[in-house]
TrEMBL record:
InterPro entries: ADH-like_C, ADH-like_N, ADH_Zn_CS, ER, GroES-like_sf, NAD(P)-bd_dom_sf. Pfam families: ADH_N (PF08240), ADH_zinc_N (PF00107). Belongs to the zinc-containing alcohol dehydrogenase family. Keywords: Metal-binding, Oxidoreductase, Zinc. GO terms for molecular function: oxidoreductase activity; zinc ion binding. PROSITE patterns: ADH_ZINC (PS00059). This is S-(Hydroxymethyl)mycothiol dehydrogenase. Its cofactor is Zn(2+). It comes from Pseudonocardia thermophila.
């Protein structure tokens, strides 16, 4: 769509809390400054979108949804560098600025400007849309800064490449980078949706001694096994804390990755910890949710509680690496994909996601 002579492109827009997805015409704008224009080839359907659609992660409606984006560069702003027209790319919503105090100190994961921020998107009726997570990529076209696009091997199919935008790096990186899983670790992953299964894969890649997957869905536990879980616990049929303690000889887990997020699963994760363990919050809690924590117990058992945002990944390093592992057959992301949809079928895809049907659907354009 470089030099696109059409006046508009189509995008998925939600106008109100719990409102339906509407496919609307959005006026085409040429890239300025360091922006690049992408022809979107695929966009994953993620729970983070749903949080915005339901008003639990913000209320800046209308939202242009979608942030797990793969595409081809079709146009460059005058100051855009690092990519070329024709490149196959994935949008990385988290890229450190490189200039702030935290970046200068060698702590890019603490950069306050990591999250992509984008100007409002003028919609067809003059309203200003907000791109979810600064992207708004469930659309035929999207504009993002050049530093937020990462070239990957064009042999990766678009529906797989889109998965590298959020869910896969968020889970994989939480195990590898945030928790720093190693061969001596017994690891528990709570919640085996898209992010949780990716966390299982990351723990397996790191050589964890034991990986226990916890969920209430037999299908999701089966998927976790396919990605490297050594043990599974059906939390609808057994006490997950007791089961983990039994599997670990009473010690508890060295690493607990909460891929659900929220007070209930956080309490479960705390109860599973071994002394000196690492608990990593991976799933996003709802706005205003509060969890209780026994400080005396925490003090006596030691260890750490960490938050992992986008898996503490470095986009330029990790996205090509994950793509290469897919192509090498090490990371079977075809099994991660639950179904593909046309843009007009986006609502159906999100409905299936909310019904717990599969790991991740993708809109292919």
């Amino acid at each position: 769509m470089g030099g696109d002579d059409r006046a508009c492109y189509r995008a998925a827009v939600v106008r109100a809390v719990h409102g339906p997805i509407r496919i609307e015409d959005v006026p085409v704008r040429a890239p300025v400054g360091d922006e690049v224009a992408l022809r979107v080839t695929a966009c994953g359907l993620c729970h983070s979108d749903v949080h915005f659609m339901h008003g639990t992660s913000g209320t800046a409606f209308p939202y242009v949804v979608g942030h797990e984006v793969a595409g081809r560069v079709v146009e460059l702003g005058p100051d855009a560098t690092g990519v070329a027209v024709g490149d196959t790319v994935v949008v990385a919503p988290m890229v450190p600025c490189g200039t702030c105090r935290q970046c200068a100190a060698g702590r890019p994961q603490a950069c306050p400007d990591r999250l992509l921020r984008r100007p409002p998107i003028p919609l067809g009726d003059g309203a200003l849309g907000t791109g979810v997570l600064g992207v708004g990529g469930l659309a035929e076209r999207v504009l993002v800064p050049a530093r937020n696009v990462v070239p990957i091997d064009p042999r990766v199919p678009p529906q797989v490449a889109a998965l590298l935008g959020c869910g896969v790096p968020s889970g994989y990186g939480a195990a590898v980078h945030t928790a720093e899983v190693g061969p001596a670790d017994d690891v528990v992953v709570i919640g085996c949706g898209g992010v949780g299964v990716a966390a299982v894969a990351g723990a397996a890649a790191a050589g964890a001694a034991r990986i226990v997957a916890v969920d209430v869905s037999a299908a999701k536990l089966a998927a976790a096994t396919a990605f490297g879980a050594t043990d599974v616990v059906d939390a609808s049929a057994a006490d997950p804390v007791a089961a983990v303690r039994d599997l670990t000889g009473g010690r508890g887990a060295d690493v607990v990755l909460d891929a659900v997020g929220g007070a209930r699963t956080f309490a479960t994760a705390v109860a599973m910890r071994a002394p000196g363990s690492r608990l990593v919050v991976v799933g996003a809690p709802k706005t205003g949710e509060i969890a209780e924590l026994g400080l005396r117990e925490l003090f006596l058992t030691g260890g750490s509680i960490r938050v992992s945002i986008w898996g503490d990944c470095t986009a330029s390093r990790d996205l090509p690496l994950l793509a290469a592992r897919y192509l090498d057959g090490v990371l079977p992301l075809d099994r991660y994909l639950s179904g593909t949809f046309a843009l007009d079928e986006a609502q159906e895809g999100y409905d299936r996601l909310l019904a717990g049907e599969g790991l991740r659907g993708v809109v292919v354009l």
